[in-house]
Amino acid sequence: MPRVNDLSRSLTALDQDSTLIAVIEMGLKSWQVGALVPGLTRQPLKKLDPDAAGLLHQLERWREEAALAGRVVRRICVAYEAGRDGFWLARWLGSQGIEAYVMHPTSIPVKRDHRRAKTDRLDVSLLLRAFLGWLRGEAEHCSMVAIPSLAEEDAKRPSRERETLIGERTRLTNRMKSTLIRLGVRGFKVTLRKAAEKLETLRTAEGVTVPPHTMSELKHDMERLQLVKAQIKAIETARFERLDQAPEEGPHAMIRLLARVMGVGMETADLLVNEALSRNLRDRRAVARYAGLTGSPDESGKRRREKGLARAGNARVRGGMIQLAWRWLIFQKDSELTRWFRQRTADGRKDVRKTMIVALARKLLIMLWRLVTTGQIPDDLVLHPAP
């Protein structure tokens, strides 16, 4: 039986004679909009400019056509696939009194032909068929994505920007090291604050100074590296300021509670709360499924095998939890989860440890979810003193 927040089917009864159903295939230069209009035997399909006002005008035109056919449209439902455009259109349509839904792309069944025809017109037909089945309350047609508010989306930006900057810092550092190694220079720390000043004293394997063009490249990379470091520092400082100014506001209380757990740093706490734990997840299975920490069985006839992680959830949460699981074994040595992991990896085989660390990450994520949502603190959990 579906739950209240079950997005795999609609819980509202569908009266198709008074409901205008539309789907949008969103492109960069145009939108293909298909609809089921009450009173019309045809299924209209319009190509529009990517403009919300134009879409609203077209929906009103279809409402008028339904009125001319003797039908009164009391409900308008619009859906589109999650993608580059995000959720702004769904929020805007909702403010205009229109039911807007965002479909999970991987939940829509498609043909498995070797050379499947694929056009925007066919995609609109496929989306419309799946959306109609979802509105009727039928299972396995498609599932919807929870539409976050603008504030919830914005809360994810600092962590994601920092992740990008960390990758940029690593890329710059590795490129400078590779440049120097190519000249036979080893052991020089390019991350030092005064590294640019010491470049002039370097000597290559041939005993000469660094060539001028290479010297210029290294100095430019060091300037970019210092800028990236400053931006990372600014993001971290701003985060602490926000937490200090409003410690109990929104997800800040969850972040502060998680950061008290030994082994969970502020970055990990911010990532987990804003990406996963602050969402209205149904139960522990939904928590693990959202992180992509569930299996993908392959069973057919007598064949029984496991293909590994589903990888269908949030990749940031999944990667962060696997890293946290390894740290958990160091900082929470006496916890029940650590003992559970040690018992099942007593033989020391690497393949078993790699498999079981994913299982530990799943159990750990569920435990942290219960911690921040219900305040359930395990007796063996080691916490930092409250500030």
Summarize the structure in short.
The chain has 387 residues and is of the alpha/beta class. It has helices spanning 52-68, 88-95, 120-135, 150-155, 157-182, 195-198, 212-245, 252-259, 266-277, 284-290, 315-331, 336-344, 350-374, and strands at 19-26, 31-36, 45-48, 75-81, 99-103, 295-300, 303-309. Strand 1 and strand 2 form a beta hairpin.
What does this structure look like?
The chain is α/β, with parallel strands linked by helices and 387 residues long. It folds into three domains: 16-147, Nucleotidyltransferase, domain 5 (2-Layer Sandwich), CATH 3.30.420; 154-243; 252-374, no CATH class. 49% of the residues lie in helices and 11% in strands. The strands form two sheets. The protein has a five-stranded mixed β-sheet, with helices on both faces. Helix 8 (252-259) packs across helix 9 (266-277). The longest helix is centred in the middle third of the chain and has 34 residues, at 212-245.
Query: How many domain regions?
Result: 3
- What is the correct CATH architecture of the largest domain? 2-Layer Sandwich
CATH topology of the largest domain: Nucleotidyltransferase, domain 5
Structural class: alpha/beta
The succession of helices and strands, N to C, reads: EEEHEHEHHHHHHHHEEHHH
The CATH class of the largest domain turns out to be Alpha Beta
Integer-rounded radius of gyration:
27 Å
Q: Within the largest sheet, what's the order of strands?
A: 3-2-1-4-5
Poorly predicted ranges: none
- Quaternary state reads single chain
| Portion in strands | 5-15%
